[in-house]
Amino acid sequence: MVVRYTREEDWQELKRIRLAALLDAPTAFGVAHASAAAYTDTGWQDRAAGRGPARYLLAFQDGAAVGIVGHVPVNAQTLGLIAMWVAPEVRGTGIAKSLVQAVQSHAALHNYVRVTLDVAPENSRAAAFYLKQGFTFLPEWEALESHPAIQLQKMAWRHISIGVATETELAAVAGLYQTVGYGGGVSATDVTLCAKAGTRLAGAVRLCKEEGVMVLRGMHVHPDFQRQGIGSLLLTHCIPYLSQGESYCLPYDHLVQFYEQAGFRIAAVAGLPPFLAERLNGYLASGQQIVAMKRPGILGKQSTISNTAQTSAP
């Protein structure tokens, strides 16, 4: 199976599969079959060659197109995913995932912050698929152009980059912490990882070397970016640092399972370094539901870190 952009000479395959999609799912697309069938050959050639805002990719199997997706710029930061369809006989084989990933890769390469699409909420199979590809629902609705009585909900995937904060970015991290009410502050002596959506700071976490052990602190995601898997990405990028030696974190008790996925386990207070036991007791005395967790320095294969909201204690 090969996924690639269409060329002008692909216009007949593009026409065939696009019309097949419109017949198979007439209420899933903004263009009606009758309208698309009326396009001239020149019109299809222009679409295949990319002479227009929309670009199309086809998935080929044994020389025939079995899947299609398109993308079109919405604005300078947003790329719209359109025309997604896979032939019934090859559904469930990974073709749809490959098509979506091709659009996501194009967005990342060309500095788009996010990819958006529209889906009918009652189309549970499609919605579940897009959720697995990292899309989340937005509180935005619009009528389907070809069937105005049908309301579609918008979904979005954000291109997130993770890196060590620069001196300039530490100021933005301090601003994020102020926004979410975290009083732990920032320090140039810590390794602070930033999650960025384009130029916007989406989340951050601190890795603090304290008295010979590593302490994970200040894991926070900006409210605008929560429940999009960003905390999971940050935690994944922490693992190389955590694996250098004994590591600890003091999360809220409802987040134990999340941190367990990175190798942390509940730790007895008696076994904590004295400075950390004192810190934990202070949190508990203030009424916070905090637990201590420990991670050994070297672990075997890590389990997959799931998309779960998370916040560590200061």
UniProtKB/TrEMBL annotation:
Keyword DNA repair: no
CDD domains on file: NAT_SF
GO cellular component term, pick one: ribosome
MF-aspect GO terms: N-acetyltransferase activity
Record InterPro entries: Acyl_CoA_acyltransferase, GNAT_dom, NAT_camello-type
Keyword Ribonucleoprotein included in the entry's annotation: yes
Keywords carried by this UniProt record: Ribonucleoprotein, Ribosomal protein, Transferase
Organism whose genome encodes this protein: Duganella sacchari
Pfam families from the UniProt entry: Acetyltransf_1, Acetyltransf_7
Protein's name according to its UniProt entry: Ribosomal protein S18 acetylase RimI
Ranges of residues in domain N-acetyltransferase: 1-157, 160-283
Gene3D superfamilies noted in UniProt: 3.40.630.30
